[in-house]
Amino acid sequence: RLEADVQLVVRLALSNAPGLGIAFFIWVGIFNMMIVAQFWSYANDVYTPDQGKRLFAIIGFGQTMGAVFGGFLSKQLIKTLHVYQLLLVAAALLLAYLLTILVVQRRTREVARDRTADAPIPDKRGGFSLIAHSHYLLLIALLLWALNFSNTNGESILGRAVPGEAARAAAASGLAHDAAQDFVKQFIGSFYADYFTWVNVATALIQLFLVSRIMRWFGVQFA
User: pLDDT tens-digit profile of 144-191?
Assistant: First the structure.
């Protein structure tokens, strides 16, 4: 009953407020960027440099494998839960992440308090000032801008192509009205689940077999 009510609310919200979809898309884009930065910033506060050297590579690989599994799991769940119910799954996962952070915070509070006396004095300059005064940080910022520019445009092109292909497939199957709409949603959800699964499989293989060798053979600047 709860899932049906949530689905009804989402349908009414999207039908009565078309701009809500745009706002949701923009929020997801910003959230996806900021949550990664917040995670690594928090991890940097929790762990010492020696611990980070040992653990961060494992955590990074775990993130990639989690993304692979997430894409695969999404394709399986969309067949039974459908599109709107997956929003509830995503909300539950975010809640689980929050609880995990609270547990980590409680476990590390005493350790962090012990480190405070020996901690270096933090740089009081803002982020933009640090970038402006560091050639290295400026190049990283430009690299991230180029990455997100190409990624956003690529997703925009894909976002126009996939719904068109889904509509053609629905028409070829002789579906109409509600059946066609449900088919299109299933088609798009399954496509993106497969797409991100294979993207992250490629990412994991590159991390395992190429990154360390490129950095060792050609250096950080070339990498």
Answer: 899 889 988 998 899 889 999 999 999 998 888 888 888 898 899 889
What angle (nearest 5°) sits at the alpha carbon of residue 73, between those of residues 69 and 75?
A: 125
Q: Hey, what are 156's tokens?
A: 């925009």
Cβ 19 vs Cβ 96: under 8 Å: no
pTM for the full predicted model: 0.63
Which of these, 110, 132, 152, lies nearest to 26 by C-alpha position? 152
Render pLDDT for 19-38 as a digit per residue (tens, 0 to 9): 777 777 788 778 887 888 88
